[in-house]
Every structure is written in C-alpha cells, then in structure tokens.
Design a protein that fits this description.
The complex is a heterodimer of chains A (251) and B (100). Chain A has nine helices and two strands. With 251 residues, chain A is mainly α. The chains are: A mainly alpha (251), B mainly alpha (100). Chains A and B meet through helix 8 and helix 9 of A and helix 3 of B.
C-alpha cells in the first residue's frame, strides 16, 4: 500500500536533515508499469509512532496544565474535563461492583490517549496514530495485560484461570482451549475495530480532499470528530466490560 | 424480496464483469482475484451490517418511545451493540486493505 507520511514527519526530517533509506519490503509502488522503491527517513517510516507519542505528550501536557490551574470557580476547560471524568466515573461504577475507583486512572488514561490520537485525524499536518494497526494493538495489549493482572490480583491465580475451565471436570479439555482462544481473539477485535474505523474515515476524507480540496472535506472532517468520539467511547466501554468480567466476584 | 436481491446481485456481478472486460481487454488475471473481490466482499458485508444496524436502532427507538426514562441506558447499550455489529464490516474493510 502507498505510504503517506504526515507533514510533521516531513518537516522534522527536513529540519534535522535525517537521511532517507529504502526500507526492505516497504514503499514499493507500481507507477506506469514500473516498480518504484520510495525512500523514507526513520520519522516518515515510523510516522504512527511519532504521532502516537505526540498524542500522549499532548494528553499529558493538557492534563497537567489543567491539574495545576484547578480552581473553585472552574474555567470552561476545567468544566469540560470535570464532565469527562465524572462521566468515566459513572461508567466504571456502573459495571464494576467493588473498588471501581481503583481502575478509574487507567481507564481515563487510555480514553484520553485514544481520543487525542483520533483528534489528530482532523488536525492539519498530523495523521492519527490509531490509523495504524500497531498503535491500536499496543493499546489493546496494554488493556489485556491490565485486566488479566487485576483479575489474578482480585481472585488469585488458580481461581482466575480456573474460571476458563468451565464448571465440569470432564469438559476441561474442550472448554479451556476455546476460552483461551476467545480471550486472545478479544484483542484482535478490540484493536481492529478502532483501527478500521479511524483508517477508513481518514481514507475517505483523503479521497474527498483529492476530488475537491476546498469545501468538500468539511462534512467528512465533522464526521471524523464525531466518529473519533464514538470510537473512543466504544474502546473505553469495551475495556471496562473486559475489566469487570475479569475482576467480578461470585457471591 | 429474496428474488429481488438475487436478481440485483447477479445483475451487479454481470455488469461489473462486462465493465471490466470492456475496460481492460488484454488482462490475463481472473476477475475473482485482486481488488474486485475485496470490494465485493466489503459491499456484501455492508448490506448485512446495514440491515442489522437498522434493526438494532429501530428496537432502541421503540424502547425509548415506550420508556423515555431509560433513554440513557438504552443509548449506551445500543452504541455498544452497533460497534459490535460494525466490527464485522471493519474486518471486511481490513481484508480489503490487505488484498491488493
């Protein structure tokens, strides 16, 4: 597939004077019946990582800035963040029965990271980090490790993994592989959903832009803002559901 | 309805085959490999997803109309369900990205 680096990667390459290489198996195109091997600098090659780090940095800087300027009379931006955090708090408390406040920081972090990444899709010069599968798979794997760890912490090692074995002893060889497969394929659906939505939306916006760059992409960009929010919400809600499934006690 | 869908499907396939033949006469590659198949798979997935999502949203609207106080909870559940339905089309989209 053709690789379009974001403008910020190109600018940084020009500013720092980075060397451009031909990466093996990457950027090979067919133009007019001839194979062309394009060359990219390291920033252009790993564009998604650059944008994901920028998103993480932006989330950290904005959150710290709000945190340092907290007031009894809230500024508009503080009100927005309070609304977001109370919404997340309600969501976590609605599905996790015990010690829900323990998991709020992680859920909030992952939601902010994904949201800023999605927002980069409508920012000029940047490309969304989540339109590459590596970034979303990373986020999904972090969530995976987190809920497995907390499931084991809340229930104990044998009790947690024993849950996957089913209720009856002679069903274990049948149930255990299936449940483990289900657990692992959760990652796939969790990450591919975010990646496919954002990448597809970005692609359609790009096609609209190539048809008529002036006014045509505007509705698509608006839709991109909306989709970014919805996909962040879905990613967060699914993380919470997996987490609540892992840490739920039987009474 | 079934007949209509079948006819439309066959008509669409024959039309695209005809169009492909006219556009590129000297291609030795079969039509059922490469991007055409990816696009067709995406179209089929989108049909099913559209029907399913319409059904889900209709049921949610009905639920909200009957009990407006449960609107928030129904909306959240509906969005999760829509995302799960949509994921199947997204798999087709990813496959369409992957196939060249």
């Amino acid at each position: 597939m053709e690789h379009h680096a974001s403008y910020i990667a190109k600018w940084l390459t020009e500013i720092f004077g980075l060397a451009r290489y031909q990466w093996t198996g990457f950027g090979i195109l067919e133009r007019n019946g001839q194979l062309v091997h394009e060359s990219f600098s390291i920033l252009e090659r790993y564009d998604h990582l650059l944008n994901a780090s920028l998103a993480a940095l932006a989330a950290m800087i904005i959150a710290t800035w709000i945190r340092s300027r907290m007031n009894k009379i809230p500024s508009p931006i503080q009100q927005i963040f309070e609304m977001v955090i109370s919404g997340l708090d309600d969501m976590v408390k609605a599905s996790i029965a015990h010690h829900a406040e323990r998991y709020l920081p992680f859920i909030g972090t992952i939601a902010l990271f994904v949201f800023f990444n999605n927002l980069f899709g409508i920012t000029p010069g940047l490309s969304p980090g989540t339109s590459n599968w590596n970034v979303t798979l990373g986020a999904a794997l972090v969530v995976f490790c987190y809920y497995n760890f907390h499931g084991m912490k809340a229930k104990g090692f044998w009790s947690y993994w024993g849950h996957f074995a089913g209720p009856v002893v002679f069903l274990i060889p049948l149930m255990f592989p299936l449940e483990i497969l289900g657990l692992l394929s959760r990652n796939l659906s969790h990450s591919l959903r975010l990646f496919g939505n954002i990448a597809g939306e970005h692609l359609v916006a790009g096609i609209f832009f190539s048809i008529l760059p002036l006014f045509l992409p505007i509705p698509m960009l608006f839709l991109g803002l909306f989709f970014g929010l919805i996909q962040t919400f879905v990613f967060t809600v699914l993380s919470i559901i997996y987490l609540s499934g892992a840490v739920a006690h039987d009474h | 309805m079934k007949k209509f869908f079948t006819t439309a499907f066959i008509f669409g396939i024959s039309l695209s085959l005809f169009g492909m033949q006219e556009a590129t006469p000297a291609v030795t590659k079969s039509i059922f490999e490469g991007q055409f198949l990816a696009h067709l798979s995406l179209a089929i997935a989108a049909v099913g997803c559209g029907l399913a999502q319409g059904k889900a949203v209709a049921a949610a609207c009905e639920g909200i109309a009957r009990n407006p106080q449960a609107a928030g909870e129904i909306r959240t559940t509906m969005i999760i369900g829509l995302a799960l339905i949509e994921a199947l089309v997204i798999y087709a989209l990813v496959a369409a990205f992957a196939i060249k």
